[in-house]
Amino acid sequence: MNAVLETGISLVLIFFIFSIVTYVIQELIAVNLKYRSKMLWKSMWQLFDGEKLEGRMQLLKALPQNDTDTTKDFYNHPQIQSLKKNLNDNTLPSYIPAANFALAVMNLIAAKADANKDNTATVSQTTSLDDIRAGLQKFVDSKGNLYAVIKNLLDTSSTLQELQQKIEDWFNGYMKRVSGWYESHIIISIRIIAVALTLIFNINVIKLAKKIYTDGELRTSLVAMAERVVDKPDAVTQYYTSSFNSISKNIDSIYQQQLDADTTLDGKKKILAEKATVLDSLAGVYTKKNSAAMRSLVSQLDSTGLPLGWKGDSLKAETSGKPGSNPLINILLMIIGWTIGACCISMGAPFWFDMLNKLVNVRRTVV
Q: Which residues contact 259 (CB under 8 A, 6 or more apart)?
């Protein structure tokens, strides 16, 4: 009974570690290819100009230039421009604070009420709900959902401050949905990474299960490692609970306060330049730290004696199997083992950590 349970714990540990590696690789790809900023832009495109978010791999494509008039106006607004690393480049923010969104939208709408009004001005005390109501009529026939969303919030607001708060609350809810869309868009890349890791490290679950079950010393080492993970989870869970996006949000928040306090153009440029330097440095540190974490986790597994990867004639040995065995059956079992491994790895680290926690506690209760 203990051998079966310990084998299960060992396999779950393997799935957990490689799920973390998969997440980290995906996160590094997202940081370097600007997946989040593209997803955010497209979610704004859907809101302002009515474009549908279709296709799983759309984040790999360049952003469109046609039928994006309102979206461009929004991104050109000072409240959004202030989030860029540099005022003179074309980078897009990967995170927009709710306050910046609300102020930019209120100003864009109010400016439509008067063709002579400056579209880049901030919402001031002279702006009234009537200005916003009048400007909103310009969006009645727009393809996006902006008119319906703001009209509903406007009809239930008695002051500009109340309207701003309601827009911020709505935007925070919208961003939760966007996060869900983002996860659905990257699921294919997660699966591709899981398959690649399975083949590179030869994670044949059938072979590994047999090896772990019959090798008491290997099983003991893996279970000991699993117990360390459960007892000190922060040492590993930090790598799949802390994304670069969440870290950069804190940086944006700090510098946004400085931008709001400094009204001079030179001062704002200096603050943005400093923020750009900090974010660039942070991205480099984040990449190095997580790359080192991947190597460390795989190295710890390898140190237990687990037969990972391809060594010598391992492929030939696995396909030929024992003397007298059928090579075709061996190949089929190897493919099945890989398939199970890839599917399990793509299920995600949180799922496997919960499973590992439960199995380790069961073992401690039984022993």
A: 82, 268, 271, 272
